[in-house]
């Protein structure tokens, strides 16, 4: 039995197999429509979510399985003081696989240690978000044709952004990757990722404050929102939330083939006027999230489809 806590739980070869499977699911959805008939997915979301929770549910339903679970801690026995370990022991009696989101870093790992079923980390605090990373990699590979030889701009909340942290961990394993880290001083990438991941793997990177400075050099721009829920006080959030706004004027500085990704939800960091730009692929990215979660569920449940 395997769990998925981090993108690094998968080798590059295993990752490529999941992405290949996701592409096949996209091309031949009917082939997989009953692959998980009789199987149940438990969605254990201690923190609000729209895309991740619903895409997991859509993935399992598309595979012919069923779904149970809760969408907030308030609607679970956590309000009565039940531990994560006890919850997953109980859920293991009801479901075949679980996806867990939790505000505390490491909570899904605690669950995995006590679980009788595969556990997927669907986001833990500011730590990791591996299925979003799989979604990002599928989007990039499908639309760019490769995961190597790319200059990638990461913009916004690089300090608390778990999607950014997971994506960096995954992409450093591919050749020719270069990062441009775009953030205000207060939201810079944590030292441990800069030193232990980028520098240790000899991955070139530059740090800039102005988005305009970076745009002409990028193959991909990964925008993120400033996350209100990660701030300790309202004043700091209000000061930082509008630091970056991507609009049509700024897009004129970007190359004709640069893609814009965003893990969503957005607030106002990408103007709605950019949505019609063919380089804006964040809604297509959300659709890729369903395919990749279908592939991951099949892989962890060891379901083979001929």
From TrEMBL:
The protein's annotated pathway: Pyrimidine metabolism; UMP biosynthesis via de novo pathway; (S)-dihydroorotate from bicarbonate: step 2/3
One Pfam family per UniProt: OTCace
Enzyme category, top tier: transferase
Catalytic activity: carbamoyl phosphate + L-aspartate = N-carbamoyl-L-aspartate + phosphate + H(+)
Sequence ranges assigned to domain Aspartate/ornithine carbamoyltransferase carbamoyl-P binding in this UniProt record: 2-141
Any single GO BP term: 'de novo' pyrimidine nucleobase biosynthetic process
Residues that hold carbamoyl phosphate according to the record: 51-52, 101, 129, 132, 264-265
Function: Catalyzes the condensation of carbamoyl phosphate and aspartate to form carbamoyl aspartate and inorganic phosphate, the committed step in the de novo pyrimidine nucleotide biosynthesis pathway.
UniProt family annotation: Belongs to the aspartate/ornithine carbamoyltransferase superfamily. ATCase family.
Subunit structure: Heterododecamer (2C3:3R2) of six catalytic PyrB chains organized as two trimers (C3), and six regulatory PyrI chains organized as three dimers (R2).
UniProt-recorded name of the protein: Aspartate carbamoyltransferase
């Amino acid at each position: 039995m395997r769990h998925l806590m981090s993108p690094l739980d998968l080798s590059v070869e295993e990752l490529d197999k999941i992405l290949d499977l996701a592409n096949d699911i996209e091309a031949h959805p009917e082939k997989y429509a009953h692959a998980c008939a009789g199987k149940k997915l438990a969605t254990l979301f201690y923190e609000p979510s729209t895309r991740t929770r619903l895409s997991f549910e859509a993935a399992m339903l598309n595979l012919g399985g069923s779904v149970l679970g809760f969408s907030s801690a308030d609607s679970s026995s956590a309000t009565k003081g039940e531990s994560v370990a006890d919850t997953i022991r109980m859920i293991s009696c009801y479901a075949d696989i679980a996806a867990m989101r939790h505000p505390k870093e490491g909570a899904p790992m605690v669950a995995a240690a006590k679980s009788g079923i595969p556990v997927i980390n669907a986001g833990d605090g500011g730590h990791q978000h591996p299925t979003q990373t799989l979604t990002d990699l599928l989007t990039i590979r499908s639309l760019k044709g490769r995961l190597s030889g790319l200059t990638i701009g990461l913009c916004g909340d690089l300090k608390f952004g778990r999607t950014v942290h997971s994506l960096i961990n995954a992409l450093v394993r591919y050749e020719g990757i270069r990062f441009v880290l775009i953030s205000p001083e207060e939201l810079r990438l944590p030292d441990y990722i800069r030193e232990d991941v980028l520098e240790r793997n000899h991955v070139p990177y530059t740090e800039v404050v102005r988005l305009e400075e970076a745009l002409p050099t990028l193959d991909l721009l990964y925008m993120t929102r400033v996350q209100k829920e990660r701030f300790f006080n309202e004043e700091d959030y209000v000061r930082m939330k509008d630091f970056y706004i991507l609009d049509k004027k700024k897009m004129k500085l970007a190359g004709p083939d640069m893609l814009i990704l965003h893990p969503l939800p957005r607030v106002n960091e990408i103007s709605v006027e950019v949505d019609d730009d063919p380089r804006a692929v964040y809604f297509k990215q959300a659709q890729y999230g369903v395919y990749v979660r279908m592939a991951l569920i099949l892989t962890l449940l060891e379901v083979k489809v001929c």
